[in-house]
Each structure stands twice: as C-alpha cells, then as structure tokens.
Predict the 3D structure of the following.
Amino acid sequence: MGGYYTQARTEGDVFGQKGDFITSPEISQVFGELIGIWFVAEWMAQGRPKAIELIEIGPGRGTLMDDMLRAIRNFKPMVNAIEAVYMVEASPALVKKQKNLLCGEDAELNEHGIGHTCTSKHGIPIVWTENIRFVPSTPEKTPFIVAHEFFDALPIHAFESVAASPDEPAAQPISIQTPTGVHQLAPEAVAKKSSAAKTPQWRELVVSPAPPGATHEDMKTPMSERELYPPLEFELTRAKASTPHSLYLPEMSERYKALKNTPGSLIEISPESHVYMAQIAERIGGSAQQSKEKPKGAALILDYGTHETIPINSLRGIKNHRRVSPLSEPGLVDLSADVDFIGLAQAALKTSEGVEVYGPIEQGGFLLQMGIKERAEQLARGKPQEKAKSIEGAWQRLIDRGPSGMGKVYKALAVVPESGGRRRPVGFGGDIQG
Ligand code: SAH
C-alpha cells in the first residue's frame, strides 16, 4: 500500500515543525489533558461504569493519548476500570512511535489476536489494531472513543450538479462510467430514465491526466514558488457521464437531494466517514443489529470542518506546511478534506436510537468551557518567564477565534448515551455531574 501515513520516511515523521503539519496535541499538553478530563466527567455522569475500553482512532505520535492518560491517572477508580486502551492505527511506523511514548523505548511490542500489544507506564494494556471493527464489542463494554484529525484523512467523493440541456447530451444518463470504461445503458433503461434526464444530474469529479503545461494556479502558492513544485500530472475534471457513485451516493440524504436541482451545486461526501461513525454509535448505543440494553460510553470527535453546510472544494494537499495540489506526488502529500459534521451526526443517529449527538461547536468555546485558561495558568505557575510565555502562546493558539484560527476552524462533536436531551455533556453547555 502506498499511503501517505504508511510511507517510509528516512527522517522523522509527518508531524511537527520538520514534518508537513502540526496538530493541537503537539502544540500544548493541556489539549490532551482536557480531553482526558472530558472522559472522566462522562464516566462520572454515567454512574462510573466498569469494563472501559479507551479507544483512539488515528493517534499520530501518541501524544494525545499520553496526555489523556496523565490526566485520567488522577482518578484511580476510573483507571482501574480501564480494561485496555485500543489504538486504531494504519501506519506501522506510527505504531512504533506510539509504543515508545506509551510503553517506553525498551518495551516490546507483542503479538496479539487483533494486532500488537504492550503495557503502558501506568500498567494499562495498550492494544494496536488497524480498524475499529477488530476492537471487542459486547453490550457490557463502556467504549470511550476519541478521534482527533482522523475523519479529515478519510477519502471523499466530489460531485457537481449539471443542468439537463438538449445541447449537452452527456447530461442524460444513457451511459455510466465505471473503472472498466464507459458502459451504454440498455434502451429500456434509457427510456425509463428519460423523464429523469430533464432534471439536473449529479456528475462525479474524477482524477484525470492534466494537459501538458498545467500549473498549480488554483492554489494560494505565490507565482515565484510554483516552479518549486513538479509539473501537475493529474487534475480533477467532471465526469462526462454518470458514475456508479454519482448515481447513489448523492441520493443518500435529503441534504444532498435539496441541492441537486440547483445546477452548479458542489458537494463532497465521505462514505467511509459515515461507516466509521455508524460503528462508533453502535458501540455506544447499540443498533438494530447489535442490541445494547443500556447505552454506555461516549465519543468525542475533533477536527476541522463545516458547521452546517456540506463541504465543497475542500480536498487539499499539504507538504512542508504549504498547500500543494492534492493530486501531486501521490502518497507523499498529506491529503485531507473538511469534515461534514452534520453528516457524521446523521450517520450516528440513523444507526443507533441509543445515542444523542451534541455539537458541532467551535474548539475555542469547547476548550474554554473545559477550563483551558485555568489549567494553562496552573501549568505556567512558577515556570521561568520564557517557558510561561510559550505555555500562554500555545493555549491562546488553540482557542484563537480569528477567521482562520484553530479555535474557530476546528470543531468538537460528542456522541453520548440517549437521555431524552436531559443531560448535556461538559464542554457542550453541561455541568459536571456524579
Ligand atoms: N490524532 C493525531 C494524528 C492525526 S493524523 C494528532 O492529532 O496529532 C491522522 C492519523 O490517522 C494518523 O495517525 C494516521 O496514520 C491515521 N490514519 C489515517 N487513515 C487511517 C485509517 N484509514 N485507519 C486507521 N488510521 C488511519
């Protein structure tokens, strides 16, 4: 597999000053500590349940989990109720980094039925696996699930609505484009669809070879720097015919359907995200397939994305802290897209009647409610001036609510057991309970 996170780098990894981007847990330890406290508050509010599975999806360097565990450690009965920490990670190199941080450089990574395992500095079993579906899921478990900057890394499909017009015969679904080529539909199928052909159609944006001389013009890269990037090999173009994806993905939700009749509408859909979210909701609240008498556990999703609208044109490539074409140097550029939080919320609610969803709310507001100011001040107390200043700068950066500040662009979404809307989680307007 030639994925970005699974690439072999000669030096370091993709995170931090030397890597391609820097994330909140790497900016300040307070970030992970407050998330740890969020789960402690949920555990208390739910009557201190046993059989806790602490699950992180996409843990990067492991910093977030390390900081969370440091905060949770102060609540002994909760630590004792943790059966294991599950790290859902696709990259073997990052698994090793996470192991070094959580279990120590000398600790061995042992084979485990679903992946690998070691024992943390706090004596808790840590288990790595590639997909959340391998993490044990039985009705008595209490899953506490965190995903920070995970959903933005999942693939998306992009579509544009095109008007049906007599001079654009391609707008009629007489043929569909599949990986094996364009297939003509049988005449009966075309006849059946002829009424549909008068209404706008979704067209998928597909990757195609770029014409010679194509440049990185669409990006915010200054002219003078564009030549630093290799010539564009690929670009996104609108498929000339329907694709299997364009026929069914945009029909999945009323939100997409409402835009179809406005030609030129763009939407991005991440079906993988919906599948992941359905799994998360099912673990907490049960589902038609897996009943759970008493919903338990919680999930906290933090990422950048839209508040209400469906993301458009958000697929981006980042390399060395700069924006590049998402289609350049496949496998070497970090690809991400805005997270459709309402889409995630709908996927959770559709899967499980046992859950409630709160948010999305801006990260700045969430962290302030969680007490970031107080915790950072406590951390800075008695520290040399320079250190105290850097602690101050770091937490301010996390809550910065300027137009492109992390406090505004990043959002938080919580999935908790259904309570008829009577109990708001901490950080989302609720109080500490229990
Ligand atoms: N949460 C970390 C890292 C974010 S980067 C932080 O905030 O610093 C995204 C992480 O998700 C990486 O650890 C990457 O290896 C992992 N990842 C990406 N796609 C994945 C997938 N399909 N399955 C499991 N892990 C994945």
Notes: Residues 5, 15, 23, 25-26, 58-60, 64, 88-91, 94, 148-150, 153 surround S-adenosyl-L-homocysteine (CB under 6 Å). The chain has a mean pLDDT of 89.
